[in-house]
């Protein structure tokens, strides 16, 4: 059971990569919201494959077909359903994939979970392609949040050992966050782009792929959003972020570094600024204390593993013969998933924050 | 809205630190389960204050009073409610706490969230004390899991710069995991205990407190538990883990280190062992692929910040006068929360895994 | 799984009739609401046994003990938990009850559902006593609704063949609805009280019991509350109303009579009254069209069966011996449950309407 | 918020009558279930318009397009989404409908609920057409239930004053329940068909429409399904049944008649039959005691009002001009909705019972 998330802004996703279509139903969008479909398309394109020489050359026209919930360009208050047709599904031979469990992929656990009946073609229900509906829903959520003065943006934290700068209280602006969307490799320090490209290309040429981190910020969130315990901001966002394939770690604010701090450092001291607004001098807690926003920027980082499909020979099992075998996964693979995951991370962040705001 | 979590093993917590009582209702325990109350008490005591010279000297008799759901020593299938009375709530003067927002605590965001009506005494709803009901529920979940051959245990990952060894495919056994409960400072390398005590005492003597990390493992989980996307194991566990106060980061398997790996390394290759069982050679994915268990040990680490209440003078605001002020928090505080958080982490891990198993 | 209901005003009930206590946790009460505990006690007393010669002489002091969620007489926004201790549980011999399945009671289905581990003493989890926590939660909901100008009241629709008048657009006023609480046999036509008493006493003297109907109205609900399809007002209210033991039928507005009407009659024609407010000339739809309130009074009737526990000899089975046997249920039983069910019906109506209003 | 219902067999519906499409996502179907699409089509056709001279002559090809969740003719365990395209939506002038609130329809409450942004064309989200996805989901649920020996069938209880016989312990068989699907006017006493046709035609010729009742039974449900209080069988089924447009009343077993019975009659006495199975002599409780099935047939009746759209002149309001006006609704309307509602009632009954069985 994993199709639906949310309390008030409720998102239900469906689809398998090689079925007819994938899609999403959003329940709980307020009526009367004007949706800018160009912005939606822009976000969809950021995630789509084939946008860069660093991505898979596989092209998909991820054009959402809105079936319900919109009338005269505005939301009706009824569930909004969008469908994305699977047009580029080659009817190739998947018989090997059925037997040989690809390491790092869901083949084996899915087979155990669904007793062998899951659609294994192209990872089926587990395909990264299912993040497209999330980006669609997130682009709606982003537009609702923007109308409340909240901006969300993410950039590359690192690719292997190449690090970008971090978002700080000094450098973070709505303009910077928005500008990330213009680049396939969004960076604060744009001089790092070349090094990153080089790392990716080297791995790709070796039949391998690379991991990295993504840093995301929500700017403009007022104090008082969220809850203690079960529905803390961290709980809701991490639930959604770990729903994104390949994410294996999350840290808010200073995250794991906070474990090395004394309270006198970690305790982000409050002060009134010259305008009489409550601020903290540091932001080690990433804008969240006790599970609730404190008015400072919400910031987090996620660890994203290298995409599992590589051409390098790997050891694995043949689940039907019961033998240890080797495997080479051919096809059009991404040598890195971080750039295409960035709009997905922004999307689920927007979904989670909007749901928390609507359920206050 | 944050009182209830879970789909099938559903936990509802209630209470404020200075109200009459705190407690928990568990809905969805199968009928006929024998509950060993000594084991429950043992877990409660691990979390309770005053168990060690490294903890607050404040004593609380956290004896759960079971109001329903048990009959003749077995669960009835009806909701099980346990209440823990707040006996040690000094009626001291909290007027300063109402005005001066303690840095690192929920005082300010809670005031914004609840429009000033929250019970601010001793952090109220945000008190770490509310983790006692979680430990109670977790101790029930642990007993149900144990009867299915699943063992959960956690130890100190690090305290400031002192690191313990990690749980690995080589050293992890049910016996080791169970043994952690016997120590206030559970460690794989027990020789580190002295260094850790020293770090804690130094901070305490300076009126400060320290952070650390906790590593937790679930051993014996069969392959096929969990879900793709919204209810992945990582999603459900992180949701619960970030509900625990002071947790600011989570990583599964190799976590943030996986971001620096090529897929050829990160892809935990499968093999049949001599008994014909499916295993992976490495466990960088922490026993979870595609959100579903793959049969290897589930392992994760959390970052825990230093407890916020310190006697050192801190800068903050007086929310009633609108002035920048200083604050000294006197009282019986923990110089570290990691040891007392360990049974809480185990508890929420057990709650999450049992809920996932029951909702297959 | 049946302990929790609601989306925003979320009610979790617990307890068995012969355990230590029963109770309720309410999550989602807005912070800062002043609760009049006298009004709560008044509602509790309406439901309590022993209030009338027509009720069981069994006395219970159903005094709710509030454990959390209140501070300085106001709600804090944290979950409010109230416990009612079971003080009048005679430790009599229940061994016959374990074997002989009482007709009309949940003994047999409960045994099947819970594999024999349910607490069978005094109906356990199935006891009408568990409605006391519902009345507590409802009395909170009623107070919140009253502050929005919404009044809820219920009276006897009928007892066997003795009918009271119906609530109509002409006779329904907030004052009338409130006055119902003052009587053990609330009636519009008070002259029917004697006939009803006589019907009840005749049955009681014969070792039997009687059924009846209850009519309930919510006055002052604005148009636009509710939802199409799954969360229609009728859906939410009927879900809660059928949770009340002994309810076997529900009809909104003209209910089953509407099945005999042409649309030209059933279609409650709209008009603007002299004040320019939208009204309908008739109210066959009971204030609800398309699942949503239309601004007219919400009115419904429920059928309540006779309490099952009677002293008359009944045929049944001995589930342990596998034999057909006879049974006489001795004890202090209600010869009718309608009067004590009235505050319960009002309570769940208030819970449902408030939840719908808070989740708009 | 009304798009999703269910805990384990979770149904999400979407669509407006004049949008691109309507549809449904079902989460929680077990993997590996063979779906007979002919049976699905058969159920869809029972509900579709234009199947009889007694129904609207409007033709709709309600052919479900399955987008996901099926592979090689079997369910995959992933969410199953089916879409039904809206092909017969005439782009006529809806401007009058926007202003003049049709009595008995959701026009006015919907306008209040959605602040005027709802798609008002052809009732939009409130259209009876949205029951087509429910029938689709129900036909899947029915097939799963049938494989467990559970049969569901419904017939006309009454049309205006013409009554069919009732389903009883004597006449109810799986064969009878299944046979109902073969008739547009399913009846136990087929001699009543002519009278019913006559009543319908008389009303239609007068520009009016008629109401009626439906009786539905689930045969083969084992004892022990359901829950006390919030998720009683009656609670779950009534929640779903009142989601069906035009339903205004529900009664289980003897329903409102039970209110006139003494307990000695209402208490369905248990006995062991010759095969040693537990039975009750009567079935006044409709197979449900304490919210849980007792092994006897589950039976209920619903009251269905006459379809609101009639050509007869009606009084109403013009919400834009603020005036009292008259209205004639032209078009292709049903003079009765009962026959087309029968497969919908069966469908939601199947959905509810399957969800209860899967969440035990």
Automatic annotation (TrEMBL), chains A, B, C, D:
For whether the record's keyword set contains Flavoprotein, the answer is: yes
Q: Which domain of life is it from?
A: Bacteria
Coiled-coil residues: none
Pfam families attached here?
Chorismate_synt
Going by the UniProt record, its keywords in alphabetical order are: Amino-acid biosynthesis, Aromatic amino acid biosynthesis, FAD, Flavoprotein, FMN, Lyase, NADP
Quote the record's binding site residues for NADP(+): 47, 53
GO function term, MF aspect, one: FMN binding
Record-listed E.C. numbers:
4.2.3.5
CDD domains, A to Z:
Chorismate_synthase
Q: Which reaction does it catalyse?
A: 5-O-(1-carboxyvinyl)-3-phosphoshikimate = chorismate + phosphate
What do the Gene Ontology cellular component annotations say?
Answer: cytosol
Q: Which GO terms describe its biological process?
A: amino acid biosynthetic process; aromatic amino acid family biosynthetic process; chorismate biosynthetic process
Task: Give the binding site residues for FMN.
Answer: 290, 305-309, 332
Report the cofactors.
FMNH2
UniProt pathway annotation: Metabolic intermediate biosynthesis; chorismate biosynthesis; chorismate from D-erythrose 4-phosphate and phosphoenolpyruvate: step 7/7
The record's cofactor note says: Reduced FMN (FMNH(2)).
What does this gene product do? This reaction introduces a second double bond into the aromatic ring system.
Q: Which NCBIfam families match?
A: aroC (TIGR00033), PRK05382.1 (NF003793)
The UniProt entry's sequence similarity note says: Belongs to the chorismate synthase family.
Q: How does it assemble?
A: Homotetramer.
What's the protein called, per UniProt? Chorismate synthase
> Gene encoding it?
aroC
């Amino acid at each position: 059971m994993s199709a639906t998330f949310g309390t008030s802004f409720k998102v239900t996703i469906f689809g398998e990569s090689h079925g007819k279509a994938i899609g999403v139903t959003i329940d709980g969008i307020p009526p009367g919201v004007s949706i800018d479909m160009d912005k939606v398309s822009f976000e969809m394109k950021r995630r789509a494959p084939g946008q860069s020489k660093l991505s898979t050359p596989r092209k998909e026209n991820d054009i959402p077909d809105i079936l319900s919930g919109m009338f005269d360009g505005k939301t009706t208050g009824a569930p909004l359903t969008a469908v994305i047709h699977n047009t580029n599904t080659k009817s190739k031979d998947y018989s090997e994939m059925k037997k040989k469990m690809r390491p790092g992929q869901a083949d084996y656990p899915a087979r155990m979970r669904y007793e062998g009946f899951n659609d294994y073609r192209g990872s089926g229900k587990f395909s990264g392609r299912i993040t497209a509906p999330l980006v669609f829903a997130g682009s709606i959520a982003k537009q609702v949040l923007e109308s409340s003065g909240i901006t969300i943006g993410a950039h590359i934290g690192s690719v292997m050992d190449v690090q970008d700068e971090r978002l700080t209280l000094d450098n973070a602006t709505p303009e910077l966050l928005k500008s990330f969307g213009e680049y396939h490799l969004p960076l604060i320090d744009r001089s790092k782009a070349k090094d990153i490209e080089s790392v990716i290309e080297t791995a790709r040429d070796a039949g391998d792929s690379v991991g990295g981190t993504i840093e995301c910020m929500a700017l403009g969130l007022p104090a008082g959003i969220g809850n203690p315990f079960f529905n803390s901001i961290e709980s809701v966002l991490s639930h959604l972020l770990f729903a994104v394939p390949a994410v294996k770690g999350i840290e808010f604010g200073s995250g794991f570094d906070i474990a090395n701090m004394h309270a006198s450092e970690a305790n982000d001291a409050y002060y009134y600024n010259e305008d009489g607004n409550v601020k903290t001098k540091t932001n080690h807690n990433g804008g969240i204390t006790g599970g609730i926003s404190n008015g400072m920027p919400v910031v987090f980082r996620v660890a994203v593993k290298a995409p599992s499909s590589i051409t390098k020979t790997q050891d694995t099992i043949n689940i039907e013969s019961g033998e240890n075998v080797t495997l080479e996964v051919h096809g059009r693979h991404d040598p890195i998933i971080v750039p295409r995951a960035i709009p997905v991370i922004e999307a689920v962040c927007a979904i989670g924050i909007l749901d928390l705001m609507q359920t206050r």
